[in-house]
Design brief:
- By secondary structure, the chain is of the alpha+beta class.
- The N terminus is likely disordered.
- It has a domain of 143 residues: lipopolysaccharide transport protein A fold (Sandwich).
- It is 26% helix and 50% strand.
- It has two helices and ten strands; from the N terminus they run H-H-E-E-E-E-E-E-E-E-E-E.
- The longest helix is centred in the first third of the chain and has 50 residues.
- The protein starts with 5 loop residues before the first helix and ends with a strand.
- A hairpin with a 6-residue loop joins strand 9 and strand 10.
- The radius of gyration is 38 Å and the shape is globular.
Length: 208
């Protein structure tokens, strides 16, 4: 006759049940901790982005949105009946709020007092100040006069009131009689009265 140790079986079963319950509780604890960490992360992410949004100034539509975008743009400027310049551009981006026009690939014709063409200007980019009618040209700027004198520079400004071209950039002037390089320039549109500011190099018999 077999002697069955009931206490041993009961203790073994109890130990197995306790071990299983411990594992279940451990999984639940880990799941709770993991869920808590996810909640903390999302709360931190929300607070960080909220503060970032508050710290950045709001961008108004006038700063980003133009009033008009015009292709094959054209503008004619005159004063007391005298033609000053005609401007054409591949594209014009007009901002009414600040009274400026951004130009893509501008082409400008300057006129003499008698209405004849003084010079032409091409560039990759430009700007028109609608309040003053001043012009700004930038990037691969080239001015060519009726007598084939050429001015090359990176940027220049046309003052519509004084009818003078100015730049602080490096300039190169090419004529049939030679070439002059320098830093900065003041000139009329016809390149007849040229004053190079500094660092003049090159030779030319052309009288500026």
């Amino acid at each position: 006759m077999r002697n069955i140790n009931l206490n041993h079986k009961i203790n073994t079963r109890f130990s197995q049940d306790y071990s299983f319950a411990s594992r279940v509780n451990l999984v639940k604890s880990r799941g709770f901790i993991f869920g808590f960490l996810i909640c903390v992360f999302y709360l931190w992410f929300f607070i960080f982005n909220f503060n970032s949004c508050k710290s950045k100034p709001a961008v108004t539509s006038s700063e980003t949105m133009p009033s008009q975008i015009v292709t094959d743009f054209s503008l004619f400027e005159s004063m007391t009946g005298q033609k000053l310049y005609r401007l054409n551009a591949k594209k014009a981006i007009i901002f009414d709020d600040n009274q400026k026009i951004t130009l893509i690939e501008p082409f400008i014709i300057f006129y003499n007092e008698d209405g004849s063409v003084s010079s032409t200007l091409i560039a990759k980019r430009g700007l028109v100040n609608l309040q003053t009618s001043d012009l700004f040209a930038q990037d691969s700027v080239l001015v060519q006069t009726s007598d084939s004198t050429i001015l090359r520079t990176d940027s220049l400004v046309w003052n519509n009131r004084t009818r003078i071209i100015t730049t602080d950039a490096w300039v190169k002037i090419e004529t049939k009689k030679g070439q002059i390089d320098g830093q900065g320039l003041i000139s009329d549109a016809a390149l007849k009265k040229i004053e190079i500011q500094s660092s003049v190099t090159g030779k030319s018999t052309y009288e500026f």
